[in-house]
């Protein structure tokens, strides 16, 4: 199969630190190539891939990026997987799925895909499909012996509930390491900084080996989001590392942890109680096995290939004539006899 993967122009593929969408694109591209498919990747400059060919955007303007894709898209593409949205909205004459890595797809596209059934129902109005994120298990360090600290990993914004992780740390008297990008300085100065000290530390943005070590060595990870998380990749990363991750029943969290209900909490008091009774939580090996059998890059690729074939075999994508794609393509065609546009 000849497949075009359309990434965003925000972060290269794969990302060095933060970048869930680009990591999904990377894992999917590498696994598809491994299985013998031809993959053509469109991504930000600096991207590296085993794709058949990688095209790096030459502009930061979405309109110019769409033109770039139209001009460079190889012939005989079977299906386009758009993680960005600009291609699906243009309605190309090629079967195209549009994947939302957050809570919704603003424009109406023919084949929307969401990262959880919760998001599909709530924001997609049950129109489209749900395919879970997947990670490469070998990219995460598995460890059964843990150190005596809890970990919060994510952006430092109110919606991620860092202040609630601090509250759990104070209720338990245990050490807490906070790692992630500082996106809201006002929130940080008011709700986080006053509590930093010997037991509660902020170590900044982490990635690579540092991130793997923090996840693998933590006694547990606190996933304290207060909003409806579309999926919650940290949940899977933690379990892949053999580390229990405690999360609130919000958004897609309950769905991701549906086979591990003992990890779900309703309050900070309930979360603190589970931290204190860690022996009742799943073992490292059970957590690793759970992540591998449900949320690996292999499972994710299986699901997308199944969807690709469903779209192609059942003619789910309707080819339209007067579309933005066709209009832009016509405008980009050279005029006969050297005429000006």
Automatic annotation (TrEMBL):
* Gene3D superfamilies listed in its UniProt record: Glycogen Phosphorylase B
Q: Pfam families from the xrefs?
A: Glyco_transf_4, Glycos_transf_1
Instruction: Tell me which UniProt keywords the record has, alphabetically.
Output: Transferase
Domain named Glycosyl transferase family is located at 144-258
Picking any one GO molecular function of the record gives:
glycosyltransferase activity
User: Residue limits of the Glycosyltransferase subfamily 4-like N-terminal domain?
Assistant: 18-105
Name the InterPro entries for this protein: Glyco_trans_1, Glyco_trans_4-like_N, Glycosyltransferase_grp1
SUPFAM superfamilies xrefs: UDP-Glycosyltransferase/glycogen phosphorylase
| Protein name listed in UniProt | Glycosyltransferase involved in cell wall biosynthesis
Q: What is the lineage of its organism?
A: Bacteria, Bacillati, Bacillota, Bacilli, Bacillales
């Amino acid at each position: 199969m000849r497949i075009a993967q359309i990434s965003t122009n925000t972060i290269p593929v794969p990302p060095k630190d933060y970048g869930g969408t680009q990591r999904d694109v990377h894992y999917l591209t590498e696994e598809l190539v491994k299985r013998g498919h031809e993959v053509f990747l469109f991504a930000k400059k600096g991207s590296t891939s085993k794709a058949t060919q990688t095209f790096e955007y030459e502009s930061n303007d979405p309109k110019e990026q769409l033109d770039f894709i139209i001009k460079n898209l190889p012939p005989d593409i079977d299906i386009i997987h758009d993680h960005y949205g600009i291609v699906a909205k243009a309605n190309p004459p090629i079967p195209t799925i549009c994947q939302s890595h957050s809570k919704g797809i603003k424009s109406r596209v023919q084949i929307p895909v969401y990262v959880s059934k919760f998001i599909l129902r709530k924001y997609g109005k049950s129109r489209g499909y749900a395919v879970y994120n997947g990670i490469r298990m070998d990219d995460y360090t598995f460890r059964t012996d843990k150190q005596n600290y809890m970990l919060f990993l994510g952006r430092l914004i109110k919606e991620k509930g860092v202040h609630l992780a601090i509250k759990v740390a104070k209720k338990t008297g245990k050490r807490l390491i906070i790692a992630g990008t500082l996106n809201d300085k006002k929130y940080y100065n008011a709700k986080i900084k006053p509590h930093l000290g010997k037991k509660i530390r902020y170590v900044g943005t982490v990635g690579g080996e540092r991130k793997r070590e923090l996840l693998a060595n933590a006694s547990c990870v606190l996933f304290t989001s207060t909003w409806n998380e579309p999926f919650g990749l940290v949940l899977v990363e933690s379990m892949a590392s053999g580390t229990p991750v405690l999360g609130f029943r919000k958004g897609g969290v309950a769905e991701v942890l549906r086979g591990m209900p003992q990890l779900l909490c309703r309050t900070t008091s309930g979360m603190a109680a589970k931290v204190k009774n860690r022996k009742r939580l799943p073992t490292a090996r059970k957590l690793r096995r759970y992540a591998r059998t449900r949320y690996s890059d292999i499972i994710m690729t299986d699901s997308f290939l199944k969807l690709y074939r469903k779209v192609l075999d059942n003619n789910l994508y309707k080819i339209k004539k007067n579309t933005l794609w066709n209009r832009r393509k016509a405008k980009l065609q050279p005029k006969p006899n050297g005429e000006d546009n």
